[in-house]
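[agent] plan:
  1. take the single chain provided in the ticket
  2. run structure prediction with default settings
  3. attach structure tokens to the ticket
  4. add a short note for the reviewer (M.T.)
[agent] executing step 1
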Amino acid sequence: MLFFFSKTNQLKTLCRKAGGTLFVLCFFIPFFSAAQAPMIVDRSDKPLLVGDHLSILQDSTGTLTAKNIIASQNFVQSKAPIPIFPVIDGAIWAKFSLINHSGDNLLYLDLQYANISHLLFYQQKDTGLVLLKETGNAFPFDKNSQVSPYYVCNLSLLKGDTATYFIRISGKHQVLLPLFVENRISLDNSMSLQEIVVGVYMGIILAIFLYNFFLFFSTRDNSYLIYVLYLFFLGVAQVTLAGFGFKYFWPSYPVVNDYALPITSALAGITGIAFAMFFLHTKLYTPKLNKWLYGLIGLYVVSIILSLINQNGISYNIINVVSLIGGLVLISASWYIARKKKYKPGYFYFFAWIAFLGGMVIFVLRNFNVLPYNNFTTYILYVGSAVEGILLSIALADKINILREEKERSQAEALRSSQENEKLVRDQNVTLEKKVAERTEELQSSNTSLSTALQDLQDTQIQLVEAEKMASLGQLTAGIAHEINNPINFVKSNINPLQLDINDLIEIIDAYDTLHTTEGADIPAKLVQIDKLKKQIDLGYVRNEIESLVKGIKDGAERTAEIVMGLRNFSRLDESEVKTVDIHEGIDSTLVLLKNTLPENIVIKKDFRAQGEIECFPGKLNQVFMNIINNGIQAIKEKEVQGDESITISTHDIDDRIEISIKDSGMGMTDEVRQKIFDPFFTTKDVGEGTGLGLSIVYKIIQKHGGKIEVVSSRGKGAEFIISLYRVLPQSAFD
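[agent] step 2 finished; step 3 output follows
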């Protein structure tokens, strides 16, 4: 433009030198040279492209007024039939003039691009601009007063008239200006063709979508799921580009148009690459390329984020570059995988993308004015996209055939292997039968040996259990003998003195008996003799001694009865079934039987806080108390330094359980010993002093009751056995 004005200034200088006769001509040369020739409309029955007659002015601030625009000398003639602009700041003004030499009094301007936010159509009247129409996808669709996604304006230009028009364009997307002038019939035909092409395309995409969607539910192959997602976003991106998304899906929400096209395009790219990765098995066949494909997906995600923060210009640039690179990479990869890796579906993918990219290349070349703007170049992208969808769908269907062939080959191979194995089995049967017979004989011999060993083991186990029982019985018998011997000896030692005292009383009674046969005169003398006998015997002392001896015998008998009762409570020989008993009573009876084994320095402390009655096997629980308390006594006796020792027995109620703690002040045990004390035959005593079955039997009895037993102990700090029992036996105790 600057070059043009410099040349015209030189022409004016030359005119001045040539003389005044040429001044007027030289003065008008710049205006005629700079002016855009008006477009002559000599027919209107088909669309006439306006692009060659457009002049463009970019208003980067978006503040130019109509007066500024009319007076501006900065309009630049468009060099392309279809001007293309990236995402613009401010606004773009387009200017053109028309002369109507057609036979129609009604002409229309058709802008065949839907993604423009704000459009103002003006006609110049004298020195001002008259607004013909305001539209764009920044307004709800029904307020644009149109049925097509494209923008149409009535030019109000009669036959033979000339007029100049201005268009103000602003938006958040790339802008194309395919402007056409035509009459109503041609306009209706263009819109109908657009509706038909997009409708057929969407019908094809929808059919392929549903077909593969059902195949996904039949096969559960993720390739089908990703493919239907790709079809969905591809279809939405196409209808958004054509403006039908705004028309049918979100007509009342124009703000969606700010983000729908870049986001759906990016999502179509993401799912397209993801489908290629699954379908072509790039992770297996091209592992290095697979990592780069993840990088392309990441760039698509970046473009979505940029669009959401109103950076559509950068977003479109990323999408265009990634789509070009991704398309070329996937075409090359599919050909490589098909040829080098002998993967047949790769051919389908290759030709599908060739069809799609071919349509895209023609569409882009049209937009860059390399190819003419016509129906073929306009709708070829839909054709290429539909062909791609069909070929990829066929490829997925063919994948089922490949799987079927592989299955048949696998079955044939399995049958062949089965036949070979059958022959091999027949050949080996004879050898195997011989070996089986030999092995059977060996097993029978081993079985006999094992039976003998098992019987010996069972006999040994019985002997050990019996030994444990005899040891407990011996200890119990010794305790009973010692406990009963004391009161019996006391009774026995009182019998002889009592017998002597009774003899003295009988002697006095016999003396009184003689009074019945004594004469009356002799009775006083006889009574004197009896009094002497009383004094000799010391009747008062005898009476007191008899009471003391009888009381001693009574105490001995009661102590013997108490011991017998304790033995009965301990053994519960008459109660082998489940009974509800007082657990404290069982503990007391156990202490009675162990009383003789208690050294004088050991104190039994009882802290019974629980409700004592529980459902249990009484005799078995008494055996538990006997073993644990006896072990506590033995542990205290093993201490090198004896002091005031104790065994503390306490009970507590916890929900539906009773907790019994038996804690001694003995030697305690190490962690290693504590972890093994319930193992059968484990003992820390010397050989011959213990069988190692006591605590093992305790553990099994507690398990039988469905309870738990824990041990808290450390070396030198005693041991505490904590038993937890249900008040009501669980069902497992009866199984």
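[agent] step 4 note for reviewer: The CA atoms of residues 480 and 593 lie 6 Å apart.
[agent] ticket updated
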